[in-house]
Every structure is written in structure tokens, then in C-alpha cells.
Amino acid sequence: MHMKLNAPKFYTLPLGAIRPEGWLARQLRIQADGISGHLDEFWPDIRNSQWFGGDAEAWERAPYWLDGIIPLAFVLDDAPSGNGVQLKDKVTRYMDYILEHQHADGWLGPREMVAAGGRPVKETYDLWAQLLATKVLIQYYDATGDARAHVALEKNLQMLDRHIDQGPLFNWGHSRWFEVLIALYWLYERTGGEWLLDLASKVHAQGFDWGSFFGGERLRWPMAGPTPKGRWNYMSHVVNNAMAPKAHALWWRMTGDERDRAAVYDIISKLDRYHGMVTGMFTGDECLAGKRPTQGTELCAVVEYAFSLEVLLSIFGDPAFGDRLERIIFNALPATFSPDMWAHQYDQQVNQVECSSRDGWPWNTNGVESNIFGVEPNYGCCTANLSQGWPKFVAHLWMRPQSGGLAAMAYAPNTVSIEVDGVPVVVSLKTDYPFRESLHFTVTAEQPVTFPLLLRIPAWSPGAMVKVAGEQGQQTKAGKFHHVRREWEGTTEVLLTLPMSPTLWRGYNDAVAVERGPLVYALRMGEDWRRVHEDADYRELPHADWEVYPTTSWNYALDVDTATLEEDVTFIEYPVGECPFSPEGAPITATVKGRRLLDWQQDHGSAADAPQSPVVSSEPLEELTLIPYGCTNLRITEFPVLKQ
């Protein structure tokens, strides 16, 4: 019997159909001119990767880098660069090597696992790197139409089908089994090969059952507390948990079982309840770490959770996933990089008052260098994997509804080009969102064509208004898609206004964070960047390692109250410049009053736990400046609250 996959609510567009504009284009150019675009020139694990014919690392790192650099190259369309980076040329050269050296049985890349530094791994090959490579192949084919990638994917999946008969998934492959379903379904929808669905069933049977582990409403979840030191495990690993929410959504395409849908929401709910941060992320350093804002979150988890939400948006179409995606992309993602994107952290902290290599840091698993900025602080997996965040966000800004038309899933300046019923259509969005409330769409159709334009209305904006072609504004429903269905001809202006009001998010010890729209606000602090590891390999400028120390006070309690918040916090707008995600370039600030808490001090370089709110202080009342979280390198985000 021929089986048909359950269709996703929305279909993704071909890679390259969406181009970044405005501040978003500048941000991707910063990334391309930084560590992402140059990593293969100096970092041995990519420069000398065995995936490319070298003698260094031979497992996940080259596929990780390609998984981000391919979309970066093609959404930028190899835009001219001041330093000569031509990403599409690089991508083509590396993919040529991989495709030309695929083994006869379908295996991709080196057969022997070799770790960083060329250290052989004696254990049996963990198939995770092969699963990851399948995502690389479909992106490359999507962007280029290179038929070799299609053939290589089919051969690779046939190899996996045979391999797991006698060598079942284990370790990382066991935890991340569902990642291969993305490519497997992609190939099935193009070939109809029934063996692919059999392979999906086999992979599912061998993989870790995340839904059962989280337990739904019936069972106790064993990871509800911080992972004890010395108890590293795959089930609590922060990146596995960031990937996990899409596991049951992908499997739902096979089953249509509402229990799979429910499992997705259960996983996200429990991660929020026990480990959630105001940034939309959850803690994990390197395993789940509780609610303290100093525990940190691994960069790999940030980019993987964002991608999970993009997959969830496609399959289930819940606008809440778009709200969460924007929160992560606009806050957690830029905050874990230096503004020039040459250096990154392994762990970022919501309350981060120093980035140094002191002993006694609060990490459950990670080393003392986990929050310094550099090439590969603590461990190089994030160095390889950091590139996918921004470009995949661009690639998922728009999707095609199952019933036709075009849907805005998330917002940032861009242009999308598609065909609707054979008619070329271009939609351009000019906006300084998320720093501003207004979004100006221009829909251009070469000849009359009727289709719905769906606009995601965030749950935080109940007063959102849509105005089409200068007509009277239309009321919208928060947390829903607003449908604009009409005949489009020539050029039509659509204005979406998303009013933003400040609110308070409550965290550990009842501390509060200020949020407005998709942005979280944090204390702007003075910074002293000190270069370290100058004599280490491949640490010459601009790819260097840095510690960061505070030069201003940070231990404040806020004088705010929910009932008077509109008066307590004042927002001031500035031009959106060349580097908006930087302390100096912050396009908006918030001023608020507060008093210092002299007893709230550092603990081994980290902020001690904030005292239980409300608090009392006799220190003078000061005016404090908060900036968007993504603009900060040092910050206090969760503040104690003064007793009213």
C-alpha cells in the first residue's frame, strides 16, 4: 500500500528566494567577513579537514560548518565583500570534493572517526556525522540544482539503510536520529521510494524516544533540576534538548498522531518551566542547569533551537513558534558573539558581569574558559556550528501555505521572489523591526493574480493593525495569522504596525527582566577587553581570544512596578547603524531608575545570586540605561526589585 506523508502546514521556499535587506543584510555581511567566512583559512579542523582531503578532524566539524556556510553564501548571493570573501566559490569547491570522493557504497567523507587535533577515536563510527551531512546535501541541491547532490543523498541513505541493520544507532546518532528525517522526507517527496519510509521507521525504532522521556502529563521528568556535577549525559545535553522539540513534529508526518503533536508542546513547556531564560532559551552548560541566570547556555543550543523552531513553524504553523524564534534570534544569538562576529562564547549568561578564566565558575560541566570570547573557547563544536543561526533565519522568513499564497513567518528587512500561478511576485519588507513598530511591505505582481498574504501577528501585540493600499486599517488577532486576500496587480503597499509595550518577566528569586516586543533589555556596562592566549596557535588578530571585565557598577535593583511600568521605563530611539548589535550601536535604549545593592557582589567572577525580591537599599536613586540584550557583551538582565 502506498503511504503518503502528512503535509506540513507551510512549505519552505528554495534557498536564495529570500534576500536580506537593510540592517539584516549588514548583519550577514558582518558574519561573512568574520569567523564564519574565514574559518577554513586558519582553523585546522576545517582548513585541514579529512572531509576536504586533509589529515585533521574527520567527523562532525566540516559538515557543521557547511550546514551554516551554505545558506550564508546563497542568501547573500556572494555579495561583494571588502576583503574578497567569495563564499559561493568556497562552498562549490568543498562540495565538489565531497561529491567526487563519495565511496562506492554511498558513505560520505572519511570512514574513520578522527577527533580535533588529528586524534584517532577507537570507538565504532557514530553515524551522527552522516546524518548531519544529509542536511548539507539538500541545502546545496536546493541552492544550486546540482544533480550530483541528489544522487549522492540517495546513495548515502541507501548505505544508512544497510548499515543500521547490523550497526544500530548509538550515542549522538541515537539522540539525534530524527535529523535525518528532514532529508529522507525531502527525497521521498521527489522520488516516491517506499524504502525511504521503511528507513524512517527503522531509524525511529533505533532512536531515543524524547516524548516518552519527558513523560507528558503522566510521568515525572528526571531532568527537572540542574544536572549534578559529574553527571554528564546525552539525555540532559543542552544541544540534544534544543534539537529534540522537532523530533515528534517530524515523526508526526509519518503518523498523524496527535500524541506526537502534544509531545512537542510538553518538551518546550518543561524546558521553560525548569530551565527557561528570558531570552527564549534554556540553560545548559553543557547539560541542563536550572533557572539561575548565571548558569549559561551553549551557543550550539542557540542555533539548534532556532532551527528546531523553524521546522516546527513549517510543520505545525503555530505562530507562537515564530514569536519564540524571533526572541532567540534577536537576543540570545547576537549576544554570544563579539560585535564583529570574529569571536564567540561557548556559554553566554543572562547575568554576565565578567568573561574570564577564573577557577570556581558555576558551570556544571564546562571548563573555566567557557564564557570568554574567542576562536574555540572550551570546545570547538560551537566554532564549527555557529554559522547557521542568521542565514537559516533569513531562509525561513517566508513560507508557502499548504493552500497557496505567501506567509510571513518572522520579520526583518528582506525581499522575497516567487511565482504564484505562474506570475512572478516580489514582496519587499522595509523595516527597522525589531527596534521599531512599523513594517512596510510592497507587493509587486507583473500581472493580476489572486492569493492570500498571511502576516504573523505576535501574541505580545494585541493592538496590531494592517492597512492595505491606504485603505482603512484592519484589526488583527494576536497570536494568529492575519489573512490579506485580494487580487494583486502592479505595486501594492501594505503597512503592518505592531505596538510594543514594556512588560516584566519574572525569574530566579523573583528578579525581573524588562521586555518590549521581541526584545529583552539589559544593563549597558563599561567593558575592558583584554587579549589572552596571544602565543597560542591560530590566535593572531583578528581571530583572537579575549577576556572582558566590567568598568562600571552592575549591582542594581530596579525601581519598577507592573502597574506603572509605562511611566517607569522610557524608550529612546537612535538610527539603526552599520553594527546594530553592539553596545555603541544600540538602536534603542530604555532608561529606568534603580539603587545599588552593595551586598550583591561577584562570586568567582560571576554575579552571585540576586537577593530575593523585593529588596531595600539606602543608596542614591540613579538613572540606568538598558539596551537590547543582543547589543550587550556584559550585562545584568534579571534585576532584583526595590520594595515599593
Structure summary:
This protein is an alpha+beta fold and 644 residues long.
List keywords for this structure.
644 residues; 7-stranded antiparallel beta sheet; 25 strands; 21% strand
List the helices and strands and how they pair.
Layout: E1 10-12, E2 18-20, H1 22-33, H2 35-42, H3 44-47, H4 61-76, H5 87-100, E3 114-115, E4 119-120, H6 128-144, H7 147-166, H8 171-175, H9 179-191, H10 194-206, H11 210-214, H12 238-243, H13 247-255, H14 258-275, E5 297-298, H15 299-316, H16 319-335, E6 347-348, H17 381-385, H18 389-395, E7 398-401, E8 406-408, E9 414-420, E10 423-431, E11 438-456, E12 465-468, E13 474-475, E14 481-497, E15 502-506, E16 512-516, E17 519-523, E18 527-532, E19 545-550, E20 556-558, H19 565-568, E21 570-573, E22 588-596, E23 602-603, E24 606-607, E25 622-628
Parallel strand pairs: 8-11
Antiparallel strand pairs: 1-7, 2-9, 3-4, 5-6, 7-8, 9-10, 10-11, 11-14, 12-13, 12-14, 15-16, 16-17, 17-25, 18-19, 20-22, 21-22, 22-25, 23-24
Beta percentage is 15-25%
SS-derived structural category: alpha+beta
Number of strands: 25
Gross geometry = globular
The count of helical stretches stands at 19
Q: Major sheet, described briefly?
A: 10 strands, mixed
Distance between the termini: 69 Å
Average pLDDT reading: 95
Helix content: 25-40%
Using the CA coordinates, give the radius of gyration: 24 Å
Low-confidence stretches: 79-85
